[in-house]
Amino acid sequence: MAAVTPTPGIHHVTCIAGDPQRNLDFWVETLGLRLVKRSINQDDPGTYHFFFADAEGTPGTSMTFFPWENMSPGKVGSGQVSRTAFRVPEGSLDFWEARLDDHGVDYDDRVERFGETVLPLTDPDGLPIELVEVEVPDDDPTVPWTEFVPAEHAIRGFHSVTLWLANPDATMDLLRTMGLEEVGTEESQGDTPGDERTRFAASGPVGKYVDVLPTIQGGRQGHGTVHHVAFQTPTDDDQSAMRSAVQSEGLRPTQQINRHWFRSVYFREHNGVLFELATSDPGYDSDEPLDDLGGRLVLPGQFESRRDEIEAQLTDVTVPRADAVEADD
C-alpha cells in the first residue's frame, strides 16, 4: 500500500436546506460568503447545488447545500456531523453579534473551547453552525470576500466539524489513519454536557480540526443537517493512497467519481457519517472566470444538453448583491 499523505483538513461540507432563496440570502448577505458556484445536484439534477466560499473558492472554505424543498426538517443526532465551525479573525465576535441582531438571527452565549471563543448559532433551516475567533496569519491561504462583510471580520474558511458518534473509538482510529493527530480532550459544554470532547488536528492551516463527541441521541436526515463532510486529498495519488488506507480499515470506499470541480471518493465511516475525499483541482474557476464565479447556472458537461428541461424544474432565485440591498434600504 502506498504511503498515505496526511489530509490537510476539510475540503468542503455539504448540507441540506429547504427554500433556496432563503438559503442564498442567509449565506451570502448575512454571513458574507461568496456564491462561487450555482449548479445542480449531479445525482438529482432537478435540485440546485449552491457552493459558498471565500473570494476564490479556496479548498477548505466551501459550504455547499442541496435545497431539497419538499424534504422534512431533520434532527441532529448520532452518526452525523453535528456542528460546522468557521474561523473569524480575533476580536470579531462583537461585530458578528451585532450583525446577527440586525438580521434577526438567534445565537447562543459564547463558550470557551480549547482556549478559543466560540459563538454558536443556527441558519434559517436550523443547521447548527459556529464562529470561532482565531489569529489569522499573514500567509493564510484564504481570501476574504468583502461584498457584505469587511475583511477584518470576514469568515476565513472552516475551523472544524464536530462528529456525534455512538462508538467513537473506531472512528478515532480512522482519523489517525487519515493523518490527523489527537491534540486534546475536555469536558463538553452545551449540547452534551458532561461528555468528553476529543479534538484531532490535520496538517493544514484551514479546516484542520475534527472534534469527536460520544452520544446515542437519535437523529434523522433532513433540512438543517449535514449530508457529508469532504476531506482534502489534493492529488489523485494522495486520494488513491488514502482510499487504500480507508479500505484497509474495513470500509467500502467508492471508485473515484468526477464531480467536475474536483474528483471524489465516498464512504461511510464506522458510525455512519458520510465522508468524502476530494482533490484540489480543477477548482471552481475551471469553467468560469474568477470575477464571474456564481454568476450563472453551471451545468456539468453531461447535463448541458438538458438545460431547458433542468431550468424548468428549478425555482427562480436572485443572488444578493450589495448595491441592490443598499438601494432597497
TrEMBL record:
Superkingdom of this protein's organism: Archaea
Keyword Oxidoreductase attached: yes
Domain VOC, chain residue ranges per copy: 9-134, 157-280
This protein's record includes keyword Nucleotide-binding: no
Any one GO molecular-function label of the UniProt entry: dioxygenase activity
Keywords tagged on the record: Dioxygenase, Oxidoreductase
UniProt xrefs under InterPro entries: Extradiol_RC_dioxygenase (IPR052537), Glyas_Bleomycin-R_OHBP_Dase (IPR029068), Glyas_Fos-R_dOase_dom (IPR004360), VOC_core (IPR037523)
Cited PANTHER family: RING-CLEAVING DIOXYGENASE MHQE-RELATED
Stated name of the protein: Ring-cleaving dioxygenase
